[in-house]
Design a protein that fits this description.
72% helix, DUF2624, DUF2624 domain-containing protein, 5 helices, mainly alpha, globular
Length: 83
């Protein structure tokens, strides 16, 4: 894994609810404060590698359960942009 991938994964795995809300506003993703908090709890400390398709898909599925399939798809689109 190169340094850029490492930095992106580190940022993702340490993301807080407010961080996620800020990103969602920048990329026009509709998410509530409560959803952002729930998603950040799912992500925090999991050491998810978003460059690994299986790990990213598992994360998106968890996000869909907490938010909605539409929001999860939007988050997936955001992650694709980061890749």
């Amino acid at each position: 894994m190169n340094i850029i991938q490492h930095l992106v994964n580190k940022k993702l795995n340490n993301m807080t609810g407010p961080d996620l809300l800020k990103l969602s506003k920048e990329y026009n993703i509709s998410i509530t404060v409560e959803q952002a908090q729930q998603v950040s709890v799912l992500i925090k400390g999991q050491n998810i590698n978003i460059y690994n398709d299986a790990e990213r898909l598992a994360l998106i599925q968890k996000i869909a359960k907490v938010t909605s399939p539409v929001t999860a798809q939007q988050v997936n689109t955001l992650l694709q942009k980061l890749l």
